[in-house]
Design goal:
- This protein is mainly alpha-helical and about 475 residues long.
- The chain is about 45% helix and about 5% strand.
- Strands 1-3 form a two-stranded antiparallel ribbon. It has a two-stranded antiparallel ribbon with strand order 2-6. Strands 4-5 form a two-stranded antiparallel sheet.
- Helix 3 packs antiparallel against helix 6, helix 7 packs antiparallel against helix 8 and helix 14 runs antiparallel to helix 16.
- The two termini are about 40 Å apart.
Length: about 475
């Protein structure tokens, strides 16, 4: 019976790509439209941009699950199940978690493909926005540039070695509006990719506005992404400046009660979310089955004990929101954080969808805390750390190791959102799991393999170690 249910959901997901009735998902691919006609109106630009967000919803070995499951499966916050009855919809527990991924691994190949499809479409929008005479063309151009920067940034962090480790190492190919998708193009270096991302964001911040909601890239989201990239590349002064610019937008603020935090992760209702990929109640899919599938009693992952031990189980609001007692492993927990119930229909064996929350307010306070400390301003670092700690119910930090506490707080707050992988990578750390598996510091496998289909098509160089 369980096998039949699993096969049923796989067929539903495949059908989802071609038959979903949602307006965004049903956008005709941009390369099948006549751009000269589409971009004559502001409605055409809006439709095309929403179509790009629709592409970012694609999954079964595509973008929307991969943005979380790929990095989280390569880290030490999760432990893979040894129960053969447990399964993950994206197969990450079998193919990526064991750290045996290669250039043909489905999720790794799918994320690359969907990302570059979205980049191709957004570049078409940028090309026509640059020469448009429409009143609001700058706002569309700024939004499109912000999307292009975000898509390339996520490709960079998956398929490249850390910027701080080797600025001359090969990264991904940064594609601009004058590029053709199938052209043979060498890979850019990590330094070049970061430079192009920041240049796109700089241009975008001058053009974008905040009339859009959190389902679209706003000026505030662009500031926040600039802070993230600056922080990751150790440009702490700009990380501080951009974080403060983003936090100046009073639409977004920290949740400070257990009920509010529960609503954020269970019902997608929160003022903390600056940018998300939105899933409507009517949409079919499986995004609420990322790390656990409670409606099918399948738990492909449990939570690492050292992560659990970082929390004050009594005071920290996050503990009961992020974790739940594992039904089959005594004294253990499964990751509940992403298993929202907003659209879940247990009677129909449907785990439902949750919004993919890509930029949230808490990250900005953590960026400020670490960046101020690196700039020798421990007082400001502590202030910003405590703002987040107090919002989560655990009070001010009074210990002696502020640097370590900031990193611990990043791990607590941002668990299961893909940040642990990035932190291990940027800080040159390795990890070892309780089952004995892991990666050494600066291991080649922190840079995922370039998909074999891309190498066969364009002849670009594979990453070392594959």
């Amino acid at each position: 019976m369980r096998a039949n249910i699993k096969l049923f959901f796989i067929s539903v997901i495949v059908t989802f790509f071609s038959s979903c009735s949602d307006d965004i998902i049903n956008k005709e691919p941009l390369d099948q439209l006549a751009p000269e006609t589409l971009f004559q109106t502001e409605g055409g630009f809006r439709s095309a941009l929403d179509g790009v967000y629709g592409l970012m919803k694609q999954d079964f070995h595509g973008y929307s699950l991969g943005i979380y499951t790929i990095p989280e499966a390569i880290g030490d916050d999760l432990l893979g199940s040894t129960n053969s009855k447990d399964f993950s919809f994206d197969n990450s527990s079998l193919s990526i978690y064991p750290l045996a991924y290669n250039s043909s691994t489905g999720g790794i190949e799918g994320f690359w493909k969907v990302s570059y499809q979205a980049i191709y479409n957004v570049n078409t929008i940028i090309k026509y926005a640059r020469k448009s005479t429409l009143t609001n063309k700058n706002a569309f151009l700024g939004e499109a540039l912000g999307i292009r920067a975000l898509l390339h940034y996520n490709l960079y962090r998956f398929y490249s070695p850390a910027y701080n480790a080797d600025k001359k190492a090969l990264s991904v190919s940064y594609r601009f509006e004058t590029d053709k998708l199938l052209d043979i193009k060498p890979r850019n270096t990590t330094a070049e990719v970061i430079q192009f991302i920041l240049a796109d964001l700089k241009e975008a911040e001058a053009l974008a506005n905040n009339t859009v909601n959190s389902y679209r890239i706003s000026k505030t989201a662009i500031y926040a992404l600039s802070a993230r990239v600056s922080h990751e590349t150790a440009d702490y002064k700009n990380a501080i400046a951009y974080s403060n610019l983003a936090l100046a937008d009073t639409r977004y603020k920290l949740d400070n009660t257990l009920v509010a935090l529960q609503k954020e992760w269970d019902k997608d209702d929160s003022g903390e979310i600056i940018f998300r990929i939105r899933f409507e109640n009517s949409e079919m899919g499986q995004t609420a089955a990322i790390f656990a599938i409670p409606v099918l009693s399948s738990y492909p992952y449990s939570v690492a004990t050292d992560l659990i031990n970082l929390y004050d189980k009594t005071k920290d609001f996050r503990f009961t929101v992020y974790f739940k007692n594992h039904p089959t492993i005594k004294d253990n927990y499964f990751p509940k954080k992403q298993a929202g119930t907003r659209t879940t229909n247990a009677a129909a064996f449907d785990p439902g969808n949750i919004d993919i929350k890509l930029i949230r307010v808490p990250e900005l306070y953590l960026i400020l805390a670490e960046s101020y400390l690196q700039e020798n301003n421990s007082a400001s670092a502590l202030i910003n750390l405590n703002k987040l700690r107090n919002a989560r119910g655990i009070g001010d930090y009074s210990g002696a190791d502020l640097s370590n506490e900031i990193l611990n707080e990043r791990r607590r707050e941002l668990a299961f959102e893909g940040f642990r992988f990035t932190d291990l990578k940027r800080l040159g750390l390795g990890f070892k799991r309780a089952d004995g598996s892991g990666l050494s510091a600066n291991a080649n496998r922190f840079a995922l393999p370039i998909p074999q289909t891309e190498i066969d098509r364009s002849g670009i160089t594979q990453n070392p170690g594959y």
